[in-house]
Automatic annotation (TrEMBL):
Compositionally biased spans, kind Low complexity: 360-377
Species: Aaosphaeria arxii CBS 175.79
Parts of the chain that traverse the membrane: 63-81, 93-109, 159-183
Alphabetical UniProt keywords: Membrane, Transmembrane, Transmembrane helix
Record's compositionally biased regions (Basic and acidic residues): 342-355
Stretches the record annotates as Disordered: 342-383
Name used for this protein in its record: DUF1295-domain-containing protein
Higher taxonomy: Eukaryota, Fungi, Dikarya, Ascomycota, Pezizomycotina
């Protein structure tokens, strides 16, 4: 059976008339949700027919295809994590799935004969984002068999096996997969914008360059953190300062990095990571002349995730490193504080008393180095 190339009518993508229409959920998303119900049947009926599969791919709304894949992947991740009792399955995909989604939008547009300037820009910066993050996660051992974010073990010990299973079903497997889809939804909006205005706009140039700059910031933050923990590891093994890194004994004894970008932000990589996806969302807003659009949920969900993840990371760091509480007071969590103070400056009386207080409830079970923490759930999101 042969299939004709799809005509771009309502069953596939909306026939938008204006840029503002591109961000209208009732016109661009809601009418295509029913395609999700038929997609599994279509795929099962034609799984061994490449031409039919291509036809299904091109005649299915690209956002619906992404949603179907995210739901399917949630089930796969849940099964694998429960079999292995390892809850870092989504962690391994964190730097890969957003790239796949944005590449999918670009591929679908190319195959469908639609203008692709905007989605090509998004795809390019997202591929660079993913390559950097994947490499950083790999070199920290994130893809080693059996590796797991150390925090999951702590959470499981606190709440027990049954609540952990519920957490896995609802949050780890499902919501995280949906979040990784949601942060790329602005690309779908930009794909539609290309149908209305195929010209490279000022927003296209500004946001794509801005997102590239944020990837560069993340790269330097990750590299500075890597260098610090390499030096720290050598120092702990030999009790001698590794001169090739240029850290002082006081800095290495402190146990956590407070130099470079880390002197201005406690989590410069986290800050740039969040800004990257917020920028993509704002790009879709500016391009459609809207203050907000329905893709807002992905951006705000990403911010909420980082707030919770960073809170737990800092709680454990403050238990392990006495000076971390001083670091929290002197340096902003994500953004630069007006009264930022270097950790190289002498401690005042109040700060000295702060680190002399015995840490309550300090757990040796979490006594892994910050370098290990970097291979945690957030990948680049973690230090």
């Amino acid at each position: 059976m042969s299939f004709l190339a799809p005509q771009f009518s309502a069953p596939t993508i909306p026939n938008v008339k204006s840029l503002s229409d591109c961000a209208d959920f009732s016109k661009t998303v809601a009418p295509y949700i029913p395609q999700l119900y038929e997609l599994p049947h279509q795929l099962l009926a034609h799984y061994n027919d490449l031409e039919a599969l291509k036809h299904i791919y091109l005649t299915t709304n690209p956002l619906v295809t992404s949603l179907a894949f995210a739901l399917f992947n949630s089930v796969v991740v849940l099964i694998v994590s429960e079999i292995n009792k390892n809850y870092s399955q989504v962690d391994r995909l964190w730097s890969i799935l957003p790239v796949l989604y944005n590449c999918h939008y670009a591929l679908w547009a190319h195959l469908s004969g639609l203008p692709t300037h905007k989605v090509d820009h998004v795809m390019a910066v997202t591929v660079l984002w993913g390559a950097r993050l994947t490499f950083n996660y790999w070199r920290k051992g994130g893809y080693t068999i059996g590796s797991e974010d150390y925090r999951w073990a702590i959470v499981k010990a606190k709440i027990g096996s049954i609540p952990m299973f519920v957490l896995n079903v609802v949050f780890i497997a499902l919501l995280q997969n949906l979040l990784l889809l949601a942060i790329t939804c602005p690309t779908y909006i930009l794909l539609l914008c290309g149908r209305v205005n195929n010209e490279i706009s000022t927003y296209d140039s500004v946001f794509s360059k801005g997102m590239l700059f944020l990837v560069v910031i993340e790269y330097f933050a990750d590299q500075q953190q890597w260098n610090f923990h390499q030096a720290k590891s050598k120092y702990q093994k030999t009790a001698q300062l590794p001169k090739e890194f240029g850290y002082s004994r006081e800095q290495l004894d402190r146990g956590f990095n407070t130099t470079g970008l880390w002197a201005w932000s406690r989590h410069p990589n986290f800050a740039a990571e969040q800004a990257f996806w917020i920028a993509l969302y704002q790009w879709s807003c500016c391009e459609t002349w809207n203050y907000m659009n329905w893709a807002f949920f992905g951006a705000i969900g990403y911010l909420f995730l980082f707030q919770g993840s960073t809170w737990l990371t800092e709680l454990l760091s403050a238990q392990k490193y006495p000076e971390y509480k001083i670091y929290q007071k002197r340096v902003g969590k994500f953004l630069l504080k007006g009264d930022t103070k270097s950790m190289e400056e002498p401690k005042n009386e109040k700060e000295r008393k702060l680190i002399e207080q015995p840490a309550k409830g300090k757990s040796t079970a979490t006594g892994k180095s910050t370098a290990t923490a970097t291979a945690s759930k957030g990948k680049t999101r973690k230090r």
